[in-house]
UniProtKB/TrEMBL annotation, chain A:
Keywords for the protein's UniProt record, in alphabetical order: Membrane, Transmembrane, Transmembrane helix
Stated name of the protein: Membrane protein
Transmembrane regions: 7-25, 356-374
Organism: Draconibacterium orientale
Listed InterPro entries: DUF4857
From TrEMBL, chain B:
DNA damage keyword on record: no
Name assigned to this protein: ABC-2 family transporter protein
Keyword rRNA processing belongs to the record: no
Keyword terms, alphabetized: Membrane, Transmembrane, Transmembrane helix
Signal sequence residues: none
Residue intervals passing through the bilayer: 12-33, 63-81, 102-125, 137-164, 171-191, 197-217
């Protein structure tokens, strides 16, 4: 038992130190790397790149140096306000006359990171009244869950609202909803232009649109092609009101869901994996820039408004592992144990094993050093015979 | 004989255990006093919304996070520090009992007291939560406070190990290990974020419970 307690102490020390030592090392030596901004120019039909930490900050794909002003002129739909202020906003682009107010409607920005996907999700949601006749949305007094039925709980009394729960559950049941819900996706805030309820995946992986209109349930099943499964569904509230949501599938495809006709339209992009990569989608009057940022690369795929691919550009980026401080860390530590991770909002034990075996040499040197220290100590403590 | 040992342990820690329990009850009471106040002033639905979507962790109020840690530290010091004064623990080792079993009995008694107080606090917390919140919010809150109570047990076991260790150099090394381990239980995180880590944290905590035997062994050996 005493031996076991000794091993446990050693094991505990290993766990604690493999968390703390690499963490201290990173805090002391890790240098930040800034992500470049890669945008497709509707003027040049080429990529414009802004690298915040480079000497040549603004360039095109070939590396031709640009001034800030020239760079902004190549991206008129992104820097509209600056160009209008400078009086250099073009009247027409690609032969089309530009109305600034009109093109502004088609501008959209979307971003999602892996830690937003791998995060604890709330299990209760507010269902807003989508046709209240009021200019602003109002927070309802109850919240719903979808377990064996759809239940509304009154926040003030903490009691289930039976009548409302039965009404919504019955409609869901009649539309073929299989309880419970696997995921509930929406924009649960009053700070949006209008309410479109929630997109709900049921236990049979069917997709439903659920909202409340004038106090009564609106439930619509969305036809999915084949056995489509989603990693995440991200509802959006863009000013053009062209889509309900971006839908990221299990096989790393990207779809949008259109309102009214509930069509799933595919974005002709590939390797869109929100589990691993940060995804940014910038929409404007002419194009969508779908940007994936992973460990060691940034990739921009450009689509036209019909969702067909126009062009793409990939650039490698230095990683911590490839930097000199990262290489030294791999020499010092056989593994790194982290409690939190960039790709998750959960607290867990995230183990990263060193990619090289240089740490073996360092460990052998330490063992040899320890061996000689012990031998020296033993020699010193040996009783000397008096002659 | 065993009864006498447990009674001796009880005599050492009883006032500290009462103070810890009373402090815990006061803190839980204070948390729900704040909840009740916020319910009145900011409307129930807005309060629920702030918990569900804005990261309001109502249970963090009154430094509840550190209460189990402090309670465990005080109880461990009260239980083991008197044993090191004039090496009184040696009297226990001279009893006609297995020395390891005697040490484990002391440790189990302390851990049981901590568990009893934790149970009282958790029952009180859950009961009061039930008055204001649905099961989803209560479950999230319980998952979030669980590492704090586990941290209490870890601190108790590590304090016992450090206090009973006869050599200062080793005490310092154990303290370093404790300093690396304890923050793992106290990370600032979203509600329910600890759910995947909890099983491993429970295993660590249970494993640490026998670490005390090593200090006891070194004490018996007469390490100086």
């Amino acid at each position: 038992m005493v031996k076991i307690s000794r091993y446990i102490l050693v094991f505990t020390a290993i766990i604690g130190l493999s968390v703390v030592l690499p963490q201290f090392y990173r805090m002391a030596f890790e240098k930040p790397t800034k992500t470049p901004l890669i945008q497709y120019s509707c003027i040049d039909h080429d990529f414009m790149i802004f690298r915040p930490d480079a000497d040549d900050k603004w360039t095109n794909r070939e590396g031709t140096k640009l001034t800030r002003e020239a760079y902004e002129k190549k991206l008129p739909l992104m820097y509209t306000r600056q160009l209008v202020m400078d009086g250099t906003m073009p009247d027409s682009i690609n032969g089309q006359k530009i109305n600034i107010q009109h093109t502004g409607i088609f501008r959209s920005i979307f971003r999602i990171t892996p830690d937003e996907i791998h995060a604890p999700k709330p299990k209760l949601y507010p269902l807003f009244e989508s046709k209240s006749g009021r200019a602003n949305l109002e927070m309802p007094g109850d919240f719903f869950r979808i377990t064996w039925r759809m239940e509304f709980i009154d926040a003030k009394s903490n009691k289930i609202l039976e009548e409302k729960s039965r009404m919504f559950s019955a409609v869901l049941y009649n539309r073929g909803f299989k309880f419970p819900a696997k995921s509930i996706n929406g924009i649960p805030t009053t700070r949006k232009s209008c309410d479109e309820g929630y997109l709900v995946i049921d236990s049979a992986n069917q997709l439903f649109h659920v909202k409340m209109a004038k106090g009564v349930p609106f439930v619509r099943k969305v036809d999915l092609p084949g056995e489509m499964k989603f990693k995440t569904i991200q509802c959006v509230d863009f000013s053009d009101q062209l889509y309900y949501a971006y839908l990221f599938t299990e096989n790393n495809e990207l779809y949008v869901l259109t309102p009214y006709d509930y069509m799933l339209e595919k974005f002709e992009v590939d390797d869109i994996n929100p589990d691993e990569y940060e995804i940014r989608i910038y929409g404007d009057y002419f194009n969508f820039n779908v940007i994936t940022i992973g460990s060691g690369f940034i990739r921009t795929q450009v689509l036209n408004r019909d969702h067909n691919k126009v062009d793409e550009y990939t650039e490698t980026r230095p990683t911590y592992q490839s930097s000199s401080e990262g290489k030294l860390a791999q020499f010092l530590f056989p593994a790194e144990l982290k409690i939190t991770d960039d790709k998750s909002s959960f607290v867990n034990f995230f183990l990263t094993v060193s990619q090289s075996y240089w740490w073996l040499i360092f460990s052998l040197v330490l063992i040899a050093g320890q061996y000689f220290i012990i031998r020296l100590q033993k020699k010193k403590s040996e009783p000397k015979l008096l002659t | 004989m065993w009864k006498s040992i447990l009674y001796k342990e009880w005599l050492k820690i009883r006032w500290f255990a009462f103070i810890y329990a009373a402090l815990g009850i006061l803190v839980v009471g204070n948390i729900f006093l704040k909840v009740q106040h916020d319910f009145e002033f900011s409307q129930a639905e807005n309060y629920w919304y702030s918990i569900l979507f804005q990261g309001n962790q109502f249970y963090e109020y009154s430094l509840f996070k550190f209460v189990p840690l402090l309670g465990a530290l005080v109880i461990a010091l009260a239980q083991y520090f008197p044993e090191t004064v004039n090496k009184r623990i040696k009297l226990t080792f001279h009893l006609p009992l297995n020395e390891n079993k005697a040490l484990l009995a002391m440790m189990l008694f302390g851990a049981f007291c901590l568990l009893a107080i934790a149970a009282v606090l958790v029952v009180l917390f859950t009961g009061l939560s039930g008055m204001y919140f649905p099961s989803e919010i209560i479950q999230s809150a319980l998952i979030s406070v669980a590492p704090w109570f586990l941290c209490g047990f870890t601190v108790y076991f590590l304090t016992a190990l450090i206090v009973l260790e006869p050599v200062w150099k080793y005490r310092f090394l154990y303290l370093l290990v404790a300093a690396t381990l304890v923050p793992i239980y106290l990370q600032t995180a979203a509600a329910r974020a600890y759910s995947p880590a909890l099983p491993l944290l429970i295993v660590f905590t249970v494993l640490l419970s026998v670490a005390l035997l090593f200090s006891g062994y070194r004490f018996r050996k007469g390490e100086m």
